[in-house]
Specification:
- The protein is α+β, with helices and mostly antiparallel strands.
- The longest helix is centred in the last third of the chain and has 26 residues, at 499-524.
- α7 packs parallel to α19.
- Helix content is 47%, strand content 14%.
- It has helices at residues 30-38, 40-47, 72-84, 89-98, 100-105, 118-135, 139-154, 178-192, 195-200, 202-209, 213-218, 225-247, 251-263, 334-348, 364-373, 425-429, 452-462, 478-486, 499-524, 530-551, 556-575, and strands at 161-170, 264-266, 271-273, 293-297, 300-312, 322-329, 354-357, 376-379, 392-396, 400-404, 409-415, 418-423, 440-442, 445-450.
- The protein is flat.
- Strands 1, 4, 5, 6, 7 and 8 form a six-stranded mixed beta sheet that branches. It has a six-stranded antiparallel beta sheet with strand order 9-10-11-12-14-13. A two-stranded antiparallel sheet has the order 2-3.
- It has 21 helices and 14 strands.
- It folds into four domains: 15-137, no CATH class; 141-173 and 300-380 and 473-523, Nucleotidyltransferase, domain 5; 178-278, no CATH class; 392-456, no CATH class.
Length: 577
């Protein structure tokens, strides 16, 4: 049984595999056809649209015979185009209706055809959100992963070396102060009351409902704020006792209960406001975004999510692609994100053997996980104070270790839960660096004690010295990738709210960025093969049209021939470089 069902039944969109004799592309003059073959939209159709697996979304629809769904590949592709060109929904539908190249990009062959309406696209995203909430699985992430997997194979991307970074994705919400947030909840609660209750309880709400929350707090003196919190605590207690039992099913009362528990201590007869320092970073930041969390980093405050990116970084790659995207509350540390994503990343790119990141990603748990996967961690920034004298720890066999300083190397012995390396006292006593060296004179001689945790941390810190100099700054280039996302966020804020919509933004932009890189690469080498490619395409398309027309075949074999022909041409186009 489907997890989410509706009136529509699932049906794949294959109309684009049967182009009409008098369709958009075939009706163009030859000069316009040549330009169309070189356009972003034509390559988008081949690299993105045709590789969107609609079967992924069958769980969103009914399995009973009924009206079929709108074309899913067209809706997903349109979302990617929307984020690539930074269109509003209004601009998206304007282009879907009047732009021939946009129609070409999503497989529409008739000028008058628009494959879906705005309400259908919004309902589709609502279904995706409901499915994600119930299952924890975002189907757009599945689309991104499958598209990227095909693109990696098509362009022969090496995935052994990768890099990662994260950035704050602030929600499109008002920055409420604590007092303003509590007042805003009171105003919204009053709005949902029945008319008779509004009249009955108007006096209790009167001080707040005559103004907006912003206007209310604007006139309050700083010295009066404690008194205002006391008044709100009294009102919140009354709402909890008198109104919540009646209106508890209303969404705003569910938000009210969350805020009450986060900001107040509940007593038998009253509430007490909690000190500000006891508020958690995941407390509600706005009634318009229940997912946004609070984070202060580098003196900057952000309320929303954090987006983590991983991309290939092998110097031999002609193109580097984003391989993994993850969205988390922004109060989750980078090291925790990496710990969560490593299993998935290794599953998607089994040959990963070197991962570049900054100091925020380092942790004991990650060291152990990276070691178990045989992935070399290359950290470009090291937290904490650097050692004046560097000791190297080398693993020998399954359980043995050797420790070396600039002047000697000794074997370490297991002592309970730790290891102990004893150095030659004659060399240590005469060493000019002995006052700054971690090897110290202790009972039993000059020694250094360490654990497996210390070994893994040192291994991470020193890994950058073990690779060629040209690979030591590979992580830096991911800043440009981050910027491709950030420049779509005016003043550092998303145009949307909530974790799901943030995830839609992240996966759709990721797909658009990967496509843009491949397309630019193709165009940089276009002149070498454009005449040959155009000739092959026209001849194969001409043959297919006559094959379908004179034999009146509309079965899968005909569609497969057309699809296989175009796949082969595009793969040949890329392999020419």
């Amino acid at each position: 049984m489907d997890i989410i069902t509706g009136l529509s039944m699932f049906k794949k969109n294959t109309k684009h595999l049967e182009p009409g004799l008098f369709g958009i592309f075939n009706s163009l003059p030859e000069t316009m056809k040549k330009k169309a073959l070189r356009s972003e939209e034509y390559h988008f159709y081949h690299l993105i649209f045709r590789h969107i697996d609609e079967e992924i979304f069958s769980v969103l629809y009914s399995d009973k015979k009924s009206r079929p769904n709108a074309p899913i590949n067209a809706m997903v592709a349109s979302l990617i185009l929307m984020h690539r060109y930074q269109w509003t929904y209004e601009e998206l539908f304007k282009n879907l209706q009047f732009n021939l190249l946009t129609k070409l990009a999503i497989g529409v062959d008739r000028v008058e055809e628009v494959p879906f309406c705005p309400a259908t696209l919004f309902n589709f995203q609502n279904r995706l959100n409901q499915y994600s909430t119930k299952t924890g699985r975002n189907l757009l992430e599945v689309v991104f992963d499958r598209l990227t997997d095909k693109q990696k194979k098509l362009v022969k991307i090496k995935t052994g070396i990768q890099r990662t970074d994260s950035f704050q994705a602030a929600s499109n919400i008002r920055n409420y102060t604590r007092l303003q947030l509590l007042v805003e909840l009171v105003i919204r609660i009053y709005r949902v009351l029945k008319e008779r209750d509004k009249e009955r309880f108007r006096d209790r709400f009167q001080a707040y409902i005559s103004k907006s929350s912003e206007q209310y707090i604007y006139s309050i003196k700083a010295s009066d704020i404690p008194h205002e919190f006391d008044k709100l605590a009294e009102l919140y207690f009354w709402i909890y006792k008198e109104l919540y039992p009646i209106y508890g099913e209303e969404d705003i009362f569910q938000i009210f209960l969350r805020v009450l528990l986060e900001h107040f201590t509940i007593g038998k007869k009253k509430l007490r406001i909690k000190p500000s320092e006891r508020l958690r970073s995941d407390s509600l930041q706005s009634p318009d975004d229940l997912d946004a969390t609070y984070r202060k980093k580098g003196g900057k405050v952000s309320k929303g999510q954090v987006i983590n990116l991983v991309e290939t970084a092998d110097p031999d790659n002609r193109v580097n692609l984003i391989t993994d995207i993850a969205v988390y509350p922004n109060n989750v540390d980078d090291s925790r994100i990496l710990q969560d994503r490593l299993d998935r990343l290794k599953e998607k790119t089994p040959d990963l053997e070197e991962l570049h990141f900054d100091g925020a990603y380092g942790s004991e748990a990650n060291d152990r996980k990276l070691e178990s996967y045989g992935i070399r961690p290359v950290q470009t920034g090291i937290r904490g104070k650097r050692e004046a004298v560097t000791l190297e720890i080398e693993k020998v066999g399954a359980q043995g270790y050797e420790v070396s300083c600039p002047h000697q190397k000794v074997a370490a012995q297991k002592v309970r839960k730790r290891y102990k390396a004893v150095f030659d006292p004659a060399i240590c006593q005469g060493c000019k660096d002995r006052d700054h060296c971690p090897v110290k004179a202790r009972k039993g001689g000059w020694s250094y004690s360490f654990s497996e945790k210390d070994y893994l941390r040192k291994k991470r810190h020193q890994a950058i010295l073990a690779i060629p100099p040209e690979r030591r700054k590979l992580r830096n280039n991911i800043e440009a990738t981050v910027n491709e996302f950030v420049h779509r966020m005016p003043k550092g804020k998303l145009k949307v709210r909530g974790a799901f919509k943030t995830a839609v933004f992240a996966y759709m932009v990721g797909a658009a960025v990967n496509f843009g890189r491949i397309y630019r690469y193709l165009m940089s080498n276009w002149d070498d093969f454009s005449s040959m490619f155009s000739f092959v395409f026209q001849k194969s398309a001409h043959f297919l049209r006559h094959f379908l027309l004179f034999n009146k075949i509309r079965e899968s074999k005909g569609r497969f021939f057309f699809q296989a022909t175009q796949d082969g041409m595009l793969e040949h186009q890329i392999s020419c470089f």
